[in-house]
Amino acid sequence: MEQPEQNVAQTEMPKPAALQDAGRREFAAPSGQLIFEVRNVSIWYSAFKAVTDVTMNVHENEITAFIGSSGSGKSTVLRSFNRMNDLVPGARLEGEMSYRGEQLYAREVSPIAVRRRIGMVFQKPNPFPKSIYDNVAYGPRINGERKKGQLDEIVENSLRKAALWDEVKNRLNTSGLSLSGGQAQRLCIARTIAVEPDVVLMDEPASALDPIATGAIEDLMKELKQQYTIIVVTHNMQQATRVSDRTAFFYVLTDTKSDTRTGVLVEYGPTEQIFQDPRDDRTKAYVTGRMG
Amino acid sequence: MSAVTQADQAAAGSAPGGLVGRRGLGDRSFQWLALGCGLLVLVILVLIAVTTTQQASSWFTTEGWGIFGTKWIPAENKFGATPFIYGTAVTAIIALVMAVPVSIGIALLLTEVVPYRLARPIVYVVDLLAVVPSVVWGLWGILVFAPWIQHIYAHIASAVTGVPVLGFFFGTPTSGASFFTAGIILAFMITPIVTSLSREVIATVPAVDREGAYALGATRWEMIRGVVWPHSQGGVVGAILLGLGRAMGETIAAALVIGSSPVITSRLFSTGYNMPAVIANQFGEATGVFRAGLMGLGVLLFAFTIVINIIARAIVDRSARRKRGA
Amino acid sequence: MAVATEPRRADLREPAGWRRTKNRIATTAMVVSFVVVIIPLGFVLYTVIAKGASIISWSFLTSPIPVNVAPANVGGMGPAVLGTLEITALATVIAVPLGVLGAIYLNEYGGKNWLSRFIGFMADVMTGVPSIIMGLFIFSIWVLRFHYSGLAGALALACLMLPIVIRSTDEMLKLVPNSLREGSYALGASKSRVTLTVVLPAALGGIVSGALLAVARAAGETAPLLFTILTVATANANVFSGPNTSLPSQIFVNASSPYTGAQARGWGAALTLIAIAFILMIAARLVTARFARYQR
Lengths: 292, 326, 296
Description:
Number of domains of chain C: 1
Largest interface: B-C, 88 and 88 residues
Number of helices of chain A: 10
Strand content of chain A: 25-35%
Structural class of chain C: mainly alpha
Largest sheet of chain C: none
Largest sheet of chain A: 10 strands, mixed
CATH class of chain C: Mainly Alpha
Strand content of chain C: under 5%
Helix content of chain C: over 70%
Strand order of the largest sheet of chain A: 5-4-1-2-10-9-3-8-7-6
Distance between the termini of chain C: 69 Å
Shape of chain C: flat
Oligomer: heterotrimer
Radius of gyration of chain C: 27 Å
Number of helices of chain C: 11
Distance between the termini of chain A: 19 Å
Order of helices and strands of chain C: HHHHHHHHHHH
Helix content of chain A: 25-40%
CATH superfamily of chain C: MetI-like
Shape of chain A: globular
């Protein structure tokens, strides 16, 4: 078993000692700056507390995986990073979530500006009913880019980075809906990176795809992390071990007395440590149960 | 750095901060615009009520309760609305009596009997019925239908003279342009809407219930009586009410074939009049209290149809919601 | 001693007697009701086509309405055709954008709140208001001040079309999957952008189809025009001022005329009107078939 890397430079923000907790140890192994800092975040949908007291950091140019069973809050937390939960009436967030030092949920913050920096790819590919070209050019266009030459370049670059260019370069004007599942998802990825975000959030990006398409997506993720920071929610633990640098394990906490359920972050650390030497019993049960 | 990030930064301030920003003016204006257009519906309805009542006020004040008088003789300044209310009711009832069984029959035909492929052409035909404009129904009605049916009326009337109930309704005088003719034409016109709404309602009966009845060995008719009817009763009543509203308000066809004489009589084959028809026919030359009276008939018609439509829609909505399990 | 009984035979024949008869009667009644509807429809269409076709020609569609109504084979319905086209077009231009925006409020902004449910309900109720009331309304609020004009007629028709467009557009917007909206939001679009650049284009086929049906309905209406355009016999290319006429208005006038010449022109106008309504209906179905992406 490899030794976890030690905390190297002073690029991290100083952590309050109270963060260290029996169930939630962080292995300090930064490869760069902190992108997100999450402090005691709880998320409600009206009266339902979906997620309780999550604290974690996300590092630049890494792939962070969220794993855990259904209802454990993984997607909820993911969607809070780009303020997509705002679209759900009755959703609210308590605690602090900051992006490169800026509070994401401060009153003056514009969700639109947030989403231009933090993009998202969804579980079921959702290409717009427009041409492939217009799908990828959509983001740049709403950001004000009008020049055809620039758009052409952006479209080609994004499609190349998404490993889709060769397959569609001769039919950029055909509808985005005509692509297969795997291609459509890569189109959505190209669309997301066309606006040159900082972070790409992925909500089970390959779960609706066949194994070969899944492999292509995973290879893509590993390529992309050199330029972007990626957080991916996945049900597939092998996928987490294949692509991610860090893994966060979420768990559904049931309170039998009040018959309520809520999601909590149980353990978070380097992927190898989570899967080969999990600290918490619940983590161990989950990772061994599936791999067993 | 590409133009995208530059524009991006310019829009939101410098990286990595610059998440600050208020909602765009364009975005907010659009929302107000959309809201305004939505409210337009309510505004128009209120304005209709207010302006027409205003215009009719001299009729209300001059006649007082006489607005429900039985005589409408402009030359004598008599403006009683009852002949038209009567005529509206009579023609609407005749139309319903004929259209409802036919419409429900077609709706059942489409949902229970006919295989899927045959359903679409049948629906097209029913839709064609709706495409014929009111004025064309009226043109055909007065120039072709009325002269033809006039003879039939005459035969029936002579056959039933003296017979107690039948003679009361179907005796002389008869005329091609009459309550009954208007009722028939109205029946043709309201059939599409009653059919399509009944069909929607009947279609919400769960397939499992139908199959349950069949599984017990029921014939199709028994299944319809036992399962479809109890389920869709309410909704069909709503559809019928909507047909009633339509029949009451249908103007031009009625104006052409009803005979244009404001009489209150039990003889259905006699000439008559109803609210929308008299407004259409006499508004052009009306002034003063006369015009206010016609406007007032419009106010009454508006009130009746609004009330009927509110009740009908509430019933149809509730039955549709119940079936969808909302 | 055991008695050998015959094995019970399954009786798989149709239920006999009264039950079967009732069923047959019911089925026959249902078929008859359909036939009952086809007959008059067939008659009307046949009469209109037969009587109208003999008089329709390009010159009929463009000639002026004869001042002297009695003689046959004179003149045509030119002014009425012009009037119908310009008044209906104006009404469409007014009603469709307002209706689409209203539906956008109901579906994208209002959601399930009480106001949008109330507006939706009242829009349904409004479709049942007799069209003559719209005419009386515009008469009271506009004509008394600004006199008869094609515009007044268009306003009355627009009042008629508005709830129809709102309702059909609302249905179409509902069918657009939410995943499209999410994809657009995730790229940093504002709500108005999401609606205008993704939702509307996705629903456009259905919206256009619904609008065409509303136009077909408006083109055939007479009552709203009675007190707003003051049916005249002369062509008026200025839809904004001065009295006007339309195909349905002329048919109404000619239907009550005792002269066969006028009646014949009435049939010609009726055929023209039905043809217009029919073409619009077919166009609506074509648009649905080819462009409505999300159908029920």
